[in-house]
Amino acid sequence: MKIVMLGAPGAGKGTQAIKIADKYDIPHISTGDIFRANIKGGTELGQKAKSYIDKGELVPDEVTIGMLLDRIAQDDCKNGYVLDGFPRTIPQAESLTEALKSQGDRIDFALNIDVPDEAIIKRMSGRRACPKCGATYHIVYAAPKTENICDKCGTELIIRSDDKPETVKDRLNVYHQQTEPLIAYYKAAGVLREVDGTQELPKVFEDVVAILSEN
Ligand code: ADP
Ligand code: AMP
After folding, report:
1. Catalytic residue list contains 171
2. Is residue 15 in some structural domain?
3. Active site residue 88
4. What is the CA(142)–ligand 2 centre distance, in A?
5. What pLDDT is stored for residue 67 in this prediction?
6. Which of 15, 47, 130, 157 is most deeply buried (CB count within 10 A of its CB)?
7. What is the pTM of this model?
8. What is the CATH number of the domain that holds 186?
9. Nearest residue CA, atom 1 of ligand 1?
């Protein structure tokens, strides 16, 4: 099963994608996590991406598309994957469609996690992330068992540098301009499914599983 997660930054794509990956035993591929790992490791890719990420802008398609296509060509992607944070532009979506088409394949579901901007700002201000395993928490809605420590790997949690309120507003603008058109793109492809992302976390997942059980 090949799944694309759509939705604004902070809508809950990562939270749901991790649960989907676990339930269906497919890799969770987050382009944001790949960039952050490269920044941490001081690679050339990380250096290219950092200035864009810090400003809340998108990393250019020339960098991002090749990176993602290489990742999904790996062996663990044979039975599918859940893409979180890719595609974010129409050229990214077109490249993915073309790459899959050349193998007689396609995306099965594009799940749009719908959350209004006001709720997004609240979520982002309480988000905490594990810099080691990528798990995401919220200080009120999804608190870790021990304050500020990752339940999964015991690492101290951080506030992402791009979760500052000023940057969140820029990221939301970028989302509306460049990423929201993907909803119409995947609707036209017949694979768009809408999910009410304002509900409590387990209910959002229940709705996601009901959709993915369609075929
Ligand atoms: P995205 O991957 O779309 O940027 P995240 O999955 O990191 O978003 O979620 C953003 C924040 O909102 C996190 O702190 C997360 O714990 C919290 N969150 C996710 N889903 C919900 C939900 N349904 N209700 C309340 N908070 C949520
Ligand atoms: P995320 O973790 O998905 O919120 O991504 C964090 C940041 O990484 C984004 O604000 C972008 O700067 C960059 N990024 C992640 N995925 C993409 C993508 N598909 N295209 C361009 N930039 C991306």
Report:
1. yes
2. yes
3. yes
4. 22
5. 97
6. 15
7. 0.96
8. 3.40.50.300
9. 10
